[in-house]
Design brief:
Number of helices: 2
Distance between the termini: 59 Å
Number of strands: 13
Keywords: Bacterial flagellum biogenesis, Cell projection, Cilium, Flagellum, Periplasm, Signal
Protein name: Flagella basal body P-ring formation protein FlgA
Organism: Halopseudomonas laoshanensis
Strand content: 35-45%
Helix content: 10-25%
Pfam families: ChapFlgA (PF13144), ChapFlgA_N (PF17656)
Family: Belongs to the FlgA family.
Length: 236
């Protein structure tokens, strides 16, 4: 597992200035070490492979606090609950010297996610050739990403998306397993009797949705629940 640490978006002269300040060195070192340990533990718990990058945000070089003895300096994650994305670390010195600081940092977690390879229109059925597994910083994505092609099997898009878009669950809906005009088998059952009859779908629907179907023999239109391709069920 690879990781990178350092000063985030700072000019070289500023980073050099930080390294000459023992307090800033201590704060950056303690924050970085703590976050590395937290991220490793987070990855172990989630059983996933990813590389990460810890960047401590700019610290005010005008800070005038005494150095804390190493065995008296503690760190904890103030926010968020998981050490990914924008984080805040609380550093506390508990000795004859007492102080507490909140240090902001950025934890980038790079993982392969599902990305579309070409523009796709609304209601497009997603095919394996439309997908690629590409590395992205999931710390910037929240939970809006997918990591397994099986997660999009039989799914279609709710809206149009551009090429290189990271797929998220919110973009997807189950493809219609029954189309308007399809021939279907209408089933009805209770504890004593089971009936099956031929019907025609009057509207399209996904598994679990209710649609109108016409009994071909009687011509009666009823509401039925879609159970699967060509299969609907009505209550008795």
């Amino acid at each position: 597992m690879r990781f990178i640490t350092g000063c985030a978006a700072l000019p070289i002269f500023f980073c050099a200035g930080l390294s000459a300040n023992p307090l800033i060195d201590q704060l950056i070192g303690a924050t970085t070490t703590f976050l590395e340990q937290e991220v490793e533990a987070h990855l172990d718990r989630s059983a996933r492979e990813a590389r990460y990058d810890v960047q401590v945000n700019r610290l005010d070089p005008r800070l005038r606090l005494p150095l804390c003895p190493e065995n008296a300096l503690s760190a904890s994650l103030e926010s968020p609950a998981e050490p990914v994305g924008r984080v805040t670390v609380r550093l506390s010195c508990e000795s004859e010297v007492r102080w507490r600081l909140f240090v902001p940092a950025q934890v980038s977690l790079f993982q392969e996610v599902l990305v579309v390879t070409r523009p796709l229109g609304r209601h497009s059925l997603i095919k394996p050739t439309d997908l690629a597994m590409l590395e992205r910083d999931v710390g910037l994505l929240g939970n809006a990403y997918l990591t397994d092609p099986q997660q999009v099997a039989g799914m279609r898009l709710r809206r149009q998306i551009n090429a290189d878009t990271v797929l998220s669950p919110q973009m997807l809906e189950q493809d219609e397993v029954i189309k308007r005009g399809d021939k279907v088998v209408i089933s009805a059952a209770n504890t004593q009797v089971s009936v099956r009859m031929s019907g025609e779908a009057m509207e399209s629907g996904n598994t679990g949705s209710q649609i109108s179907v016409r009994n071909i023999r009687s011509g009666r239109v009823v509401k039925a629940r879609v159970m699967g391709p060509g299969q609907v069920e009505v209550a008795m």
